[in-house]
Amino acid sequence: MSAQYFTGDQEFFTGIGAIRFEGPRSDNPLAFKFYDPAKKIAGKTMKEHLRFAIAYWHSFCADGADPFGRASHDFPWNHANPMTAAHLKAQAAFEFFTKIGAPYYCFHDADVAPEGDNVDEYQKNYWEIARIFRTLQDKTGVKLLWNTANLFSHPRYMNGAATNPDFNVVARAALQIQTCLDVNVFLGGEGYTFWGGREGYMSLWNTDMKREAAHMGTFLRMARDYGRRIGFSGAYYIEPKPMEPSKHQYDYDAATSIGFIKEQGLEKDFRLNIENNHATLAGHTFAHELQVASDAGLLGSVDANQGDAQNGWDTDEFPCDVYQTVEAMMVILRSGGFTTGGLNFDAKRRRNSTDMEDLFIAHILGFDTFALGLTLADRIISDGVVDDLLAKRYSSFDSGSGADFEKGKLTLEQLAGIGKTAPQTKTSGKQEYIQSLVNQYLFG
C-alpha cells in the first residue's frame, strides 16, 4: 500500500506556540526559565554553546510501553499505513523542533521509516523519508547532528551486528551502515554514531571475544573509509555502555572504548558520545566519563539524560540535576566546547506523562537544567577559586624535583634518594570547602 502524501500544513501540537524565554519568575510551564538562546556566555550564545538536539526515537516513537504494560501515549501521527505514519511523524517532528527552538535532531534508521519485507523496501522507505527530511531541513533551518543504524532490535542481531558469529549478518549490518552514511551525507549530518547495543556477549562459553573485537575493528575501519570516500567529513562517535541488552558490551565505558579506539587505529576519526545514564550503569559519574574522554582528547558529543541509581537499567530520564550539569559543563567548557557534537536529549517522557504538552515541558526542563549548568560552570571557571585550589594541591610538581619527575628526568634511584630526606607532609584536598563553594555558586 502506498503512503498518502501530505502538504505539511497540518498542525499536530495544537494550542502550543513557539517556546520563549520568560525568566525564572515566570509561572508559564511552556516557557524557558533559564535557557535564553541569545544570551552571551564566554563569547558565545547559549544556543551556540549547548547545541541542543532532539532524539527522534524517544520523542516520537517511545509510546510509554514497558515490560509490564502496553503503550500509554497516543500519537496524532499514528496511521494504519506505516509509510503514511512515517510521513506524518516527520512533519510532527519538525513542528516540534521549531516550536521548542532546537537547532538539531538525531535519529536511527528504524525510527523514521518501516524496514519493510526486504532490502529494497528498507532502502526505498528510508530514502523516501530522507527526502522529506531534506525538504523540512531547508524549510526550517534545523540540522542533523548525527544519525545511526539500529543494529540491535531485529532478531537477526540477537548475537550482535559487527561482532555476530554469522558472516551473513555482518554483511547485512554493513548494508544498513552504508545506507545510513549515504543518508547522512545527503542530509548534511555533522556526525555519525555507533552504539553497540548487542556488540558483546551473554556467555563466554560460546564466545570468541578476541575474534569478535577484531571483527568490530575491521567493520568500523570499513565504515570510516566508506564515509570519507563519499564526502562525510564529520566525527564518528562510539557511545559507551556496559551492558543491557548484552550482559557485557565491548564498549563498556569511556576508558574501555578509548583503549579499543587506539588499539584499532581509529583515534584520528573517532570520538566518544557520552551518555549520563550509561555512566551510571557503568558505576561512574557523568563527569567522570566526560573527563576521561576529554583527557584523551576524544570527547565528541553527549546524550543528555540522567538515570536512577536505584534502578539497574537505562531509565533515560530528562535531566533535572543541576549539580550534574554544572560538573558536565565545566568539563565541556574546559575541553574547548563542542565542534561537531552537541547535547542530544536521549530522554523520554515518563509512562504517566500522557499529555502532548508534556513532551514540551520535559524538553524545557532539560534545556533549563543545562542552561543553569552552563551559566554556573562559566561563573566557577571565571572566578578561578576552585581552579586555584586544584592548582595548589598539585603545586609540588610545578618546580624543582617535582617538575623533574613529571618531565621524566629522574631515575627511580634518584626519586628514592629524595624520599629519604623529604619531609612527610600532608596536603589537604579541601573537599568539603570546595563543595560548600559550589553550593554558594548554585544557591548564593
Automatic annotation (TrEMBL):
It is an enzyme of class 5 (isomerase). One of its GO terms (cellular component) is cytoplasm. One of its GO terms (biological process) is D-xylose metabolic process. Mg(2+) 1 binds at residues 239, 275, 303, 346. The active site is at residues 108, 111. Mg(2+) 2 binds at residues 275, 278, 314, 316. Its EC number is 5.3.1.5. It catalyses: alpha-D-xylose = alpha-D-xylulofuranose. Transmembrane segments: none annotated. It is found in: Cytoplasm. Its cofactor is Mg(2+). One of its GO terms (molecular function) is xylose isomerase activity. Signal peptide: none annotated. It comes from the Bacteria. NCBIfam families: PRK05474.1, xylose_isom_A. HAMAP family: Xylose_isom_A. Homotetramer. PANTHER family: PTHR48408, XYLOSE ISOMERASE (PTHR48408:SF1). Belongs to the xylose isomerase family. This is Xylose isomerase. It comes from Parasphaerochaeta coccoides (strain ATCC BAA-1237 / DSM 17374 / SPN1) (Sphaerochaeta coccoides).
